[in-house]
Amino acid sequence: METRDTILRLIQQTALTLRAFFNSLPLEDPLHEQTVDDFSSQLKVQTAIDLEALLLLKSSVDLQDYFVRHAAFDSTNQELLADLLVNLAERTIALDTIKSQAYQNLALSLYQLINETTQTYNWEREAKIARLKE
After folding, report:
1. How many CA atoms lie within 13 A of 16 on its CB side?
2. pLDDT tens digits, residue range 6-60?
3. Euclidean distance between the first and final Cα of the chain, in Å?
4. pTM, whole model, 2 decimals?
């Protein structure tokens, strides 16, 4: 029972951290390279998620294995991370189109992984996937 409570607390803390990251990004301004680097390093320190390592993963199996090692990232937190990646992609397109596309591809892969691993159909997630495929 203690293990379950610990995992639930980790999941909740991770969700709060991801929401704080999302809220810390400037609203409309395009992001600068330093802002993206700061975001990436904070994400790594606070959640142990290495954004650069995620971008290097090539298959959905690799992505799934990555998140198996990070118990705090349930499907809800994975979707929050994908939403953050979409936001980063939209705001860094002027800075680096290749990296922006990589963020979009990673977000798409995350949304698809969530669809594969959960038994809940989500219309909003499907709309996000369709938007990214355009």
Report:
1. 6
2. 656 665 666 656 666 556 655 555 566 777 787 788 888 888 888 899 999 888 8
3. 45
4. 0.79
**66 Cβ contact partners less than 8 Å away, ≥ 6 residues apart:** 53, 54, 57
Distances in whole angstroms, Cα of residue 123 to Cα of each of 95, 111, 126, 127, 130: 32, 12, 5, 6, 10
C-alpha span between 79 and 97 (Å, rounded)? 23
Instruction: Return the structure tokens found at 117.
Output: 């691993």
Do 91 and 103 meet the contact criterion of CB atoms below 8 Å apart?
no
Please count the other Cβ atoms lying within 10 Å of the Cβ belonging to residue 91.
21
